[in-house]
Prior knowledge:
Number of strands: 36
Radius of gyration: 38 Å
Strand content: over 45%
Helix content: 10-25%
Oligomer: single chain
Structural class: alpha+beta
Amino acid sequence: MATEQTTQDTQAAPKPRRRRRFLIAMVLLVGAVWFAPAIIANTSLRQQLLPTLAPQYPAGIEVGSASLSWTGPVVLRDVTFRDKQDAEFLRVAEIATAESLWQLISNSAGMHPITIKGADADVRFRTDGSNLEDVIMPFADPTSTIWPGVALEITDSRLKMSAPATGAEAIWTDLRVTVQKSHEQGVPYAISASATVENGTLQTELSWLPPAELTSPAAGNGKLALQTKTFPLQTLKPIFERMSLSDELIAELTSDVKTAWNTAGEVPEYQVAGELQTGNLFIKSAAISANEQVQADFLRCVVETTITGEQFNVAHLDIDSDLAKLRIEGEVNVADLTGTNSTTALLSLPKQRDFTLQGRLDLAKLAATLPETLRIREGTKITAGTVDWRLEGAKLDRALGWFGQVSVSRLTAVHDGKSLNWEKPISLDGEATIPDAGGTTIRLNCESDFLKASVQGNPGKATVQAECDLDRLAAEVGRFLDLGELELAGKMVASVDVTRKDNRVAADAAMDIQKLHLAGLGGVAWDESQLKLNCAVDATVGSEANAEFHQGSIQLAATGYQLSAQLDSAAKWNAESKSIPLEIAVRGDLTRIMPRLRTIMPLEDWQADGEVQLQTHLTVS
């Protein structure tokens, strides 16, 4: 019996040992799982976290330290992102989740707020991109129509922007950005940002609902509010370099502007309202001057406008500075102004609401700013003078009325201590009346010390007449501006008759100049006791620079020679065909013709004399 009992005990013994082994294995497994985050955080395995979560990132990522646990938030510290050139692009002091590791894994489809603290970004711009674009473009999926949710907050950060090719650099500090959007489609992104830039600040808020297919950042529905206080515009120079703009803009901007847009409907709509102002303003642009910059002591702009399709409704646009002033109010349809009935559309603008365009330009301030560009005479300082303009369109009793005026006030200057005055530089005024019953009338008069001109008629028939004293013009302008070698003299009389019916336009022009003298254009002087020019054209004018020329001719006659050209056959001028067949005829004394040609053609080495009679056919394209 004792032997039998011992055998049973021996056979029963392995069961408790297996249970103990199983329990030990379970404890070890649970321990391994429990301590796995800590193991990853404290070994080189942490370097694989971000590359695994973002495999599209095209460069290296280094994590200095990490805190990982099932019950606490995920925290990564001293994280370095490199760009495609293996240079440090972004360093982040801390990246933290608001949820524990267990919550992140158990609810992978939910929203997971992330906070980034102490980010320091170094964005380097090129004309063809930037290191920022290099690293984010691999994440773009042009085929995706799903806009992901995000909950991101960036605090206590710094942004450095530079353009190494030109040395332009800017640093934004105290940068704070929040981005919010749920995973649910049809919910807009809510983005806010603020920063300190030198002695100024910037704050913006954006609400944007992207469309199904993104064609541009302005697509979809959105609202943008921008507020700045003494924000230095010159810190945008690196961005200008990215856009291949060599312009320089120096000013401290204070603004409060709100914009809204909706491109999801059949007709896109945009709204802009707000105010901006600067102190001292400096603008250097090759489009204005190669060597000089525009300067203004202040600039203030107030705007409220709505753009619906091609309809511009300007409630008001006021620009005020010590250099110039401008005010616009009214409603304009761009499509109508570029169509076949553009003249009628322009005259009919006040049907919708009164139209106002007025402004002033300070010539003394402009001349002081751009003396070389304006060719001001050396030793001359413009002391007074303005250009004023005003155009008003209003709805009258059973008619529409237009009234306009442009004038240059009395111009004064000092040249080498001597006072200069130009009492009546030029003034222009006109009016147009469009009765509801038809019969539009147009009147325009221009007067100055050297010019008298007038326009009278209607859209169907108009006459232009002008008389100009070229001697007086050159003498008055030459007192203020440096004309270089340019010499001009003579008395000119000109007239133009224009008729129009539907799209058919016919025009005849004649000009007669007595005692013409022209020199300084690169060739020899051009002197004529009398010069006559006659032109005629008959054409059908369409939209978008389309025209069909039925007849056309030009004749130039002077003592000793005649030049003429006329249309050889009907010709069309449009996007597909830009050629005109001409018959050219030249008759006269070559000793008189060649000097005239040298003023406009490089024929200095050509010598010719005798009589010539030439007729040829050619095509101009």
